[in-house]
Amino acid sequence: MKKRFVVLLAVAAGLCASPAFAQFGSVKGVCKDKQGKPIAGAVVEFHAVGSARVYKLKTDNSGEYSSLGIMLGRYNVSLVQDGQEVFHLDGVVIGTNEKQVDLDLQHEQEQAAQQKGMTPDQLKESQGAQAKQTAAVKALNDALLAANQALQAGDFDAAIKGLTAANEVDPSHDLIWAKLGGVNLASAPKQTDSDERKKRYTEAVNDYQKAIDLLEKKPKDPKAPPPNLDLAGYYNNLAHAQAKSGKLDDAVQSYNQAIQLDPSGTAQYNYNLGAILMNAGRTDEAIAAFDKSIAADPSKPDAYFQKGSSLVAKATADEKGKITAPPGTAEVLNKYLELAPNGQFVGPAKTMIQYIGGTIETGYKQRKKN
Predict the structure, then answer these.
(1) Domain that holds residue 75
(2) What's the whole-model pTM score?
């Protein structure tokens, strides 16, 4: 007989929150050796504190370097010459105003090659290039600011326009592509036209893939070993967009990639994987994913509820209407009630236990005190 119980759709958690858009500042400086001469061909590395993000800026013939755009935040700075770190500076804060960070080796013992000074024409050319860079950074920040304001106002279309403009100014920032993917993903369900809805889900997939490609091509920072939380997060949201686009097998691969990059997130990624598999009717695979989520974090209540919902979906009824659920169904749902006695799924969990003829256990709080 057909099952009579309607199982609630699972909801993947931790996906595509609307984060505040990052702004970018500019940085420049001069690198000199111990005699006060400029160091050319060195690399100034800005390592973001608490993140794997790193910017590598090469000095020119005058020992000068500058950035087109660097995310606001706190950085540890290294001067690397011929593959060796010759100077280190911690706690440099990059704000919205242009930051001057000069690195002087006059107290260091390393010898640096002496460079010729710039001619007036070269200086003028350098100043013109810096002016163009400053204008580009301003255009980038203006576009991001417009996108952020639009999103706060609930205007997804304007936010997409602003982020697209930012990518046109400088398409090399993975974070901006990821933000654009998030807005496309969040705005898609609000579209009444089915073609437009599909288009935005597809655009979200493309945006997240672009962010992943850019981040994977960046130099690996030896001071920030795995897990790569940024990349894992991109794969997590890419998987959600792929599932919404009907690319379920691709979504499964993306979630598995996120798990590989960030094993500490195994519980959440498998929970999200179970949710999309459950909604797609691939019940056995969903149960397996929820089992992995529970194994990684036995204290995660929602995984028990969603596993119980998946098991109830496999319940059968005989000719007399007696419901038979897979073994352990009531136990899993009661485990949810134990872990989340005031959780959002308490009502549905109790209803499902009653539906399969199970017993709702009580006294969880009393047992915890003993």
Answers:
(1) 24-117
(2) 0.66
